[in-house]
Amino acid sequence: MCREALKTHFNFQSFRPGQEAIIQAVLRGENTLAVLPTGGGKSLCFQLPALLRPGLTLVVSPLIALMKDQVDALSQNGIPATFINSSLGRTEMRRRLANLGRHRLVYIAPERFKSEWFRSALLRTDVSLFVVDEAHCISMWGHDFRPDYLQLRAVLGFLGHPQVVACTATATSEVREDIARQLGLSDPTVIVRGFARENLTLAVRRTGTHSDKLLHTLQLLRDYPTGIVYCATRANVVRVAGKLKCEGVGCIAYHGGMDDQERKRAQELFIHGEVPVAVATNAFGMGIDRPDLRTVIHWDVPGSIEAYYQEAGRAGRDGQPARCELLFNHADVRTQEFFIQESDPKTTERDRNRLRHLLAYVHSRSCRHRTILRYFDDPAGEKMQGCDRCDNCLRKAGARTEAHRPPTPEEREEINKVLTGISRLNGRFGRTRICQTLCGSRDQQVLRFRLDKNPVYATLNNRPQRYVLKLIDALLDEDCIQVKGDEYPTLQLTPCGYSVLSGKEFITLPWPAPPPAQKTKQPDAPSAPTPTVDTRLVDALRSMRTRLARERKVPAYQILHNKTIEEIARNAPRDQASLLAIKGIGPVKLADIGDQILEVLLKTLA
């Protein structure tokens, strides 16, 4: 029954990890706490049960843009749904309240429950399923606490305690327990699944300056041309977006300092595919369901693993390969420390602990996917030993670029000077201070600690600091150096580093100033359409999709996904029966735009 409804109403052939188990629990009538990552398909876990059971499904969501997108998508599939939030005028809101019974799903903002008029209207309906989306917002321990969510327990009592489904993308065991407690759920069914995103390559890249970040960002956007660049501050959003535009990258800027109209316009340009890149603060992305994002770049370090993985998970929602890269400079950590200092004192300890976990992830040499799974208590993490989809595992497997080569005698001497410097400084200093010491800097902190009197001082004064920093990073990546501590990390030699220093072991490195070489293709770069795809049909179908999306004021992917367009172009169906066999075309989609698709095919192939 579930799989048939999945195909009929949503045009999907199979469930994603965890979805079917959650749906079955809901259909059994159990209060359910579902934790699936961004892109894991949480919405389907309550939308499909809403169609298979009587009564109204009420969905509480803090995101006005998400409500509209989901209602538009449901309506496209012939499913009666609506939303009620502050974007509506009083007359329209009264009309929708009077017609609640005509819908299967109604999305509402939590602040609506403050209105006695609104609560009275709800009493006249049969609310059989109460969904709390973004459920981490109810917990003080969640990364995005919203006070309006605290009234939901009282609302459940007011409605006669209907069945509850709480959904979130990011909740540790501590947060899950608090969600259940705040909603008054004594023994909910808890399902944590799907955090293994097999199409995402996770990586951390150490960067020295903003110029380094810009060069690497441009490289990533050449290989993965659609994506989001996340910045920690509004000022960085403006600065980065400006630099990317100067380099010819089509992008929008999005941050909380823009007025509502500016933000709406920027968001629409990005969602509809008219601009390939968004540069944004973390205010952007919740509810954004653009499936073709090939990269998510964190220009600044985020404040927690929860925030990082929720944002990174917006890449590759179409299942195709995507790359998520965090550009790390320890100086950027001060921004997050400032945010913590300025936050509610009740949450300071929690936020510092989260930042420590994030920094441990940055410095870790273990499998990044396994680290993420274990952090969120996904059972798959216990079985996982490694992957071929993160920088750490690829390095350990011997993956090398053309830049890796043995050192020359002069470069060998430079390696020894760096390793000797770290050894002589005795694990007391971090990357920047060690570099300054080796390069002979007269920085005040170098002089304060009398590092200018150390025998290793100025032993690399013939090299610029940027070069030495990159050499230190390369030795970190080769496990010759290890980072100790999270909040104030220092460098120490590993056993491998001591072996290299003593001449017992030899290594190859990606040298900071390699000889000119042809650009190598990233291993996960999305491949071009196969030769069997008729590019004329692809262009014609995309034009039709853009026209319909503008007419209906919905994102282009709600009309047709890229993969569906390519499959249509590959098979060139000539009748409705053949078109229905295309993955992504179900009965509702066929009835809606099937004739228009066939007309495009007929004209293009004539």
Please tell me about this protein's structure.
This protein is of the alpha/beta class and 606 residues long. It folds into four domains: 191 residues, Rossmann fold, CATH 3.40.50; 179 residues, P-loop containing nucleotide triphosphate hydrolases (Rossmann fold), CATH 3.40.50; 107 residues, Winged helix-like DNA-binding domain superfamily/Winged helix DNA-binding domain (Arc Repressor Mutant, subunit A); 71 residues, DNA polymerase, domain 1. 44% of the residues lie in helices and 12% in strands. A seven-stranded parallel beta sheet has the order 3-4-2-5-6-1-7, with helices on both faces. A six-stranded parallel beta sheet has the order 8-13-12-9-11-10, with helices on both faces. Strand 12, helix 12 and strand 13 form a beta-alpha-beta unit. The longest helix has 19 residues. About 2% of the residues have low confidence.
CATH superfamily of the largest domain: P-loop containing nucleotide triphosphate hydrolases
Give the end-to-end Cα distance, rounded to a whole number of Å. 41 Å
User: What is the SS-derived class?
Assistant: alpha/beta
Strand order of the largest sheet: 3-4-2-5-6-1-7
Number of domains: 4
Basic shape: globular
Instruction: Give a quick account of the main beta sheet: strands, pairing sense, barrel closure.
Output: 7 strands, parallel
The total of beta strands comes to 17
Low-confidence stretches: 514-523, 527-531
* Annotated CATH topology of the largest domain: Rossmann fold
Mean pLDDT over the residues: 86
